[in-house]
């Protein structure tokens, strides 16, 4: 159960969201199919939360946090949250599991550890590999950049090996440019048919059906240690991004990809994103570089999907955050959008353990270091 601010009741939460969305009471009542007087009574806590169909309609219309609205609905009736009650239904195996937890006298810490185990053992990975890789020039005339070799293995093979070392075997790849060149067994493939006209954010959503459960999402042009993935899997937040605070050394002597192009992150004392993207930072800012890897919890995946479709509807063909049009948006653009709307995004802090292969200079330098 998520932590709910004490000031919130079900009715108070609905009212706050309605006002925030600039919806009148009569307008909202008409949308969800109830009378205005009934909705007024709910907002004033004169009535308990409505049936689950109305709770779902309110959640969708008001873009509510699913866990909070269902928990508050359960509290108002002194019953289980309606989404959990609906899920349990006649699943006797879930009842048996709860009785087993009771029989073994699981404490709160035991349950948290069980949750951590389920997160790490059931995670999947999505690799976004549709781009042209034009900055690698001759090296990518016939190959996607994730197919460049380091020793006997390609960059993508090395990524897959590290995911599998961390227990992640369900791996999907989003292909586009020279897609026929990426054809390893035991991977799932999705095709970005419009890779020349879109960017990383929209490319990710060609594999939208994989955005469920615990998901690690990463760019295909980064080389990373398995330890980075393990560190990310330990994160308990709904949306977590990997941020390197010892990043500036990577840009020493790097001419083709200057430091101004780094995807910087400014974060607060709670390691939550304040600003992200190709932004200028001040010397007093607490900041690092987003390496192009994030993790979503089941709830985090739903949050990301909800905000993507909201933004797509509002900004398609229009400027969006730092992108000239929504189609060309980066993942950092939607992260900033969500942060601006109050969605917490957690930073998993690392120091080195990765590198980006974006230009000829990057590749040739990495090759020398790899073969040394």
Explain what the structure shows.
- By secondary structure, the chain is α/β, with parallel strands linked by helices.
- Helices cover 40% and strands 16% of the residues.
- It is built from 14 helices and 13 strands.
- It has helices spanning 10-20, 25-32, 36-43, 52-62, 66-77, 82-88, 92-103, 108-121, 155-165, 200-204, 226-233, 298-315, 331-340, 360-371; strands at 124-129, 149-150, 153-154, 170-175, 188-191, 215-219, 222-224, 239-244, 264-267, 273-277, 287-296, 346-350, 354-356.
- Strands 1, 4, 5, 6, 8, 9, 10, 11 and 12 form a 9-stranded mixed beta sheet that branches. Strands 2-3 form a two-stranded antiparallel ribbon.
- A hairpin with a 5-residue loop joins strand 9 (264-267) and strand 10 (273-277).
- The protein starts with 9 loop residues before the first helix and ends with a helix.
Would you kindly provide a brief summary of this structure?
With 372 residues, this protein is α/β, with parallel strands linked by helices.
Proportion of β residues? Answer: 15-25%
Helical residue percent band: 25-40%
* CA-based shape: globular
Total of DSSP H or I helical runs spanning 4+ residues: 14
Number of DSSP-assigned strands: 13
Please give the radius of gyration in angstroms. 23 Å
Q: How far apart are the termini?
A: 51 Å
Give the H and E element order: HHHHHHHHEEEHEEHEEHEEEEHHEEH
